[in-house]
Amino acid sequence: DEQAWQTYVNFELRYKEIDRARAIYETFVFTHPDVKNWIKFARFEEKQGFIRSARKVYERAVEFYGEDYMDEKLFIAFARFEENQREHERARVIYKYALEHIPKERAEELYKAYTIHEKKYGDRTGIENVITSKRRFQYEEALKDNPLDYDTWFDYIRLLENADEVDVEATREVYERAIANIPPTMQKVYWRRYIYIWINYALFEELVVADEERCRNVYKAALDLIPHKTFTFAKMWLLYAQFEVRAKNLTLARKSLGQAIGMCPKDKLFRGYIDLEIQLREFDRCR
């Protein structure tokens, strides 16, 4: 069993037989391939002053387990080893690699260790990144239980959009996942929060990304989705028309509002169309 191997190692170390002890560890970690034994092997090398050998053991352990059997304990030990060598950038890379590859539900201690590391050695941006990463994990867990919780989707999106450097693709991906959760009932009260996700998505594409065509596509997709014969959202029609005016496409703006009052002639739509034509000084059209 494992204790016999450890006793054998200790016996050789008492007689300063470092190479023999190393040879025992080499066989030990494959006979009993537990993470804790690889960590013991690496710490043995570190204690004897063989820093490069210790690092090599950690690297071999990561390779040995591969991506299918990753364990947060191994990466925490590896990162702390680098931290002890004052290799803080190496430690940071190890933490980030582990957090990207280990499922979030198995990485709670890893998040804690990374947060402590950044508080001790990182800058403000690094600490914010850790906190953001942890909050993303919490939102993901909440949305697994209830993907129709639109308030959580809003919080998640706001977190991504308020970052110092907005990751456009990651934010788009969350928007796309959010709008895929269509309310299961055709009652307008359940659609209100959902439609605001579409509105925010369109504004994100227009104001943050400055991608006019994608913004247009978002508005059109939202308007295609709303069941106008049952209920509509005048706000969405008006926002789309105002966007086309800003894009200097008056024809498209008028066409969309004409389509809107044809499909769902609400007072708010007529007033919005009238206001637009007044601003454009098109009094005959207005009349």
Automatic annotation (TrEMBL):
Family annotation (InterPro entries): HAT, HAT_Syf1-like_N, Syf1-like
GO BP field: spliceosomal complex assembly
A Pfam family it matches: HAT
Span of domain Pre-mRNA-splicing factor Syf1-like N-terminal HAT-repeats: 137-265
An annotated GO cellular component: post-mRNA release spliceosomal complex
Key words of the record: mRNA processing, mRNA splicing, Nucleus, Repeat
Name of the protein in its database record: Pre-mRNA-splicing factor Syf1-like N-terminal HAT-repeats domain-containing protein
Localization, UniProt: Nucleus
Organism: Allacma fusca
Record family assignment: Belongs to the crooked-neck family.
Classification via SMART domains: HAT
